[in-house]
Each structure stands twice: as C-alpha cells, then as structure tokens.
Write a structure and sequence with these properties.
Layout (H helix, E strand, L loop, with lengths): L7 H7 L2 E4 L5 E4 L2 E4 L5 H10 L9 E4 L16 H17 L2 E3 L9 H7 L8 E4 L13 E4 L2 H10 L1 E4 L3 E8 L8 H12 L7 E6 L1 H4 L3 H10 L7 E3 L4 H7 L8 H11 L12 E6 L6 E3 L7 E3 L15 H10 L14 E4 L1 H4 L2 H11 L9 E4 L4 H9 L2 H7 L25 E4 L14 E4 L2 H10 L10
Helix pairs in contact: 2-5, 6-8, 13-16
C-alpha cells in the first residue's frame, strides 16, 4: 500500500501504535477506557497485588449497568454478588480517582449509551471496555473493541494494550431503505447474509448511502452488532451528522479546540484507492424488517419469509436442527403469528431515544396485549428524561406499558430481568444464544418497531401493517 491512500481504520490504528513487535502484536495506546462492575473487580485486584496504580485515571470512566436492578434503584441491591460488584466498582473508583457514575447518579446508564451522549466518545479515538459491545463507539469513526479482564488490568496500569492488527473489510449498502426498515434490520440482514462468523478476524468499515443517511443512533446500533458477525469491531467515517451530534455535549471540545478537532475529524475517511482485504456490497431494496428464529444472530430472515430449510442454510445440518429444536420451531414454518410472551426494548443496541420514538409510533392509541410482559428500559437517565419530556411516557402508559429504570436489564441474565424457561421474547438486544436472557429462554432478535408490533398483538407481527 502506498502512503498516498489509507483506510479510515489504518489512519486511526497507525496513529496509536507506540511500538511494533516483529511478527507479533502492536503496542497500542488507548484514549478512553470504560469500566463497569462485572469485568473490573478482578483487574483492580491485580493492580493491588502488584502494588501499582492507574496510570491515567482521567482517561478511565466507570458506570454501573450490567447487574443493576431496573426498578427501585434507591433500595439496596438484593443479589449479594451484584451488590458486591457494584460496591467494588465504587470503592476502586474512589481509591484510584476515577469518575464513577453509580446507581442514582444522573449520568448513570449503560456504558455504551452514556459514553456517546456525554461526548466522551470522539472521532479518531481508540476506546476499549471489558465488554464485547464496545464496538458501538465505532459509529463515531473511533476504533473501539471489547477486551478481557487481564487486558483491563493492562490498560489501567499502562494505558496500552497489545493487539495484532486485524484484517480490513468494507461493507457497502446502497439505495434507500423501505418503510418500517430500521438500522437494526440492516445489521441483522448483514449478519444473516454473511453468518455469525462471517467477519471473524476483520475490522469492518460500513459505507454507502444507507449509512450516510443514517442518524448517529442508528449508526451506533449497526456498529454495536458488528461483533455478532464475528468482527473485532465496526466503524463509520465521521461526517456532518457526527459533528452535529457531538456539538455542545458535556465533554466534547469547545471553542477553538472544537474548530481544531473538526479539521482533524474531516481527514478521517478512507482515501480513494485504499485497499481492503474483503469488500461486500448489499442493496437496501433487499432488506425488509428482520427477525431471528435460531440461537445465533446469523439465523435470521425477513419477517414475511418462512423459516429456511436446513439445506438452504450455510451452516445447516445438525446444529441448525438443534437450534430449531431449542426454539420449538420447524423448517419452512411461517414466523408471522408465532407466540410471544415477553417484549424487551432496551440494551446498548436499542435503548436510545430514537428506539423509544419508534416503539411509541406503533403503540400509540393501541393497547398492550394481555399475554405480553413488557420490559421497556431506557439506556440512561438522559434517555429516561427525554422519554418524559417528549410525551412518550404518556403514550406508553396509556397503552398499558410501564417504563423501567436504566440498565442492561434483560439483555443478559445477570440481574432480576430474566425471561423464564420455554418462554418467547422478542428482544431488541443483540444476542439470542441459548440461555442468554435466562436459562431455557427463547429469544427472537428484532427492531423496536417489530417489538412494538408484537407487544400490541401478542404474536410476531409485521410492523408495516401498522405504519
């Protein structure tokens, strides 16, 4: 590759390499380190054992989200493990001078929601967190990825990490999305096309008209789901949409620093002629509202289609049949009309204000189906406040829905919001693995519009019928 043309990924990666190791990983500087209560306690214990400190406390941001309750957050947390982890995060943050947004803090929320909304996430940065969905922050033109507990300790102590440079993939989606097709559908469609392991070993750049026309919140949803195709992360070049979103946010640059930042951010795009290891093209016309029917995010299809035959599935055969068996589904059945017991709106994938606007657009003037238990969980207190200010809470309440308090909630079975065994949940979160939302639970991943349609009908329903 000539010095003349580089990809967005190369530009950001290469600017952060402190040292290259021959035939080994790069020593790589980290701009922002998010921590939460689940993956940080052991890392802090490691620091303590070795008698070392946190190198840059001001580059580290702590928020409680994974095992927080989503009702009665003012009361002591009942589960002893959760309570201990939350306390450890608070204590460790205080000990090392790290800003900490615990329960009750007005800035508290899901880590990948509060980072962007407070302007901590900025274009051209490297961002890590002990959480696989850190790829969300790539929506801003940042390199963001999840790390393991030992790496959390490494970043706390040195602000660096050792990483082999991934291969590069570009996914282009052009054309105009149809009615009722949301960013979540674009993400689920891509994963269904390339499978849940199709991007393994790659860092993905999303490009083309569909992403250029997408809101920042939509871009975050897409980048969040990158990890579900096996990618190390995903990113989208920053543009006027990005700059408008960031302007005036708490920790975004101000005044002269803002002008300087914008000048740099405008250089963060893939040059003409830059090479990718793999390039894929899709068209918006082929994407309808999506829903999963299996036990990995790649086992999904357009909502009007039937469940595919195993012969048509890339990793069909025994594992496919086992997956359908777990779900209680059969090949070639219709998905529309399938029983639903739970609806979950929230998570770092779909817990933002636009997701609640979408959900409300369908439930407005309708009633929650009697058979449905609905968990509507904002991604942060800021989102919660917006829901109230915009009159969305009134729409939800009139339709028979209650709003819960911010947290990861039913995305993963680490708090009280668990889907019971054998029950079906239409979920706007990111994973549908066996037991992900509770032991024996059955998850159908979908967009907020599809979730809303299920919530008012009690079965899987095409949201376009209501639009």
């Amino acid at each position: 590759m000539s010095n003349m043309s580089a990809t967005l990924f190369d530009k950001v990666w290469d600017a952060h390499v402190i040292r290259k190791i021959e035939d080994g990983p790069d020593v790589f500087f980290i701009d922002r380190h998010f921590i939460h209560e689940v993956t940080s306690p052991v890392a802090f214990l490691g620091l303590q054992t070795r008698g070392i400190s946190v190198m840059f406390p001001d580059r580290t941001f702590a928020t409680a989200d994974h095992n927080t309750p989503t009702i009665n957050q003012h009361l002591p947390v009942q589960d002893p493990l959760s309570a201990n982890q939350l306390q450890a995060l608070e204590d460790n943050s205080a000990k090392y001078g790290i800003s900490h947004w615990g329960l009750g803090n007005p800035k508290n929320g899901i880590v990948h929601v509060v980072g962007p909304e407070n302007g901590i996430t900025l274009p051209g940065m490297t961002i890590v967190c002990g959480d696989s969905h850190t790829s969300t922050h790539g929506a801003f033109g940042a390199i963001a990825f999840g790390i393991g507990t030992s790496e959390v300790e490494m970043v706390l102590s040195s602000q660096c990490i050792m990483q082999p440079k991934p291969k590069k993939m570009r996914i282009n989606v052009n054309g105009k999305l149809g009615k009722g097709v949301s960013p979540k559908d674009v993400a689920l469609y891509i994963i269904a096309q390339i499978t849940a392991s199709g991007a393994t070993g790659y860092f993905v750049e999303y490009a083309g008209e569909v992403f250029e026309n997408m809101s920042m919140e939509g871009r975050m949803t897409v980048c969040n789901m990158s990890i579900e195709s096996g990618a190390r992360g995903g990113m989208i070049a920053p543009d006027e949409t990005t700059f408008a979103y960031l302007k005036g946010r708490d920790m975004a640059p101000k005044g002269e620093a803002w002008d300087k930042a914008i000048a740099y951010w405008k250089t963060l795009k893939t040059d003409a002629g830059a090479q990718f290891d793999l390039e894929l093209n899709f068209h918006a016309d082929n994407i309808e509202p999506q829903i999963t029917y299996g036990t990995n995010p790649g086992l999904g299809t357009g909502i009007s289609a039937n469940i595919p035959l195993s012969s048509a599935v890339k990793d069909g055969g025994a594992s496919y049949k086992k997956s359908l068996e777990y779900m209680g589904f059969a090949e070639d059945e219709k998905i529309i009309g399938k029983q639903v017991d739970y609806v979950f709106l929230g998570s770092c994938t779909n817990g933002r204000i636009e997701d609640f606007r979408d959900f409300a657009s369908i439930v407005k003037g309708r009633k929650k189906a009697d058979n449905i238990t609905a968990w509507l969980v904002p991604g942060s207190h800021i989102v919660e406040a917006q829901i109230k200010e915009e009159g969305i809470l009134d729409i939800l309440n009139e339709a028979g829905f209650l709003l819960r308090q911010p947290g990861c909630s039913a995305c993963l079975a680490m708090n009280d919001d668990k889907v019971p065994a054998g029950k079906y949940a239409v979920s706007t979160s990111n994973r549908n693995f066996e037991g992900r939302q509770g032991p024996g639970s059955r998850t159908l991943l979908a967009s907020p519009l599809v979730a809303a349609a299920a919530a008012v009908t009690g079965v899987v329903t095409d949201p376009r019928d209501f639009l």
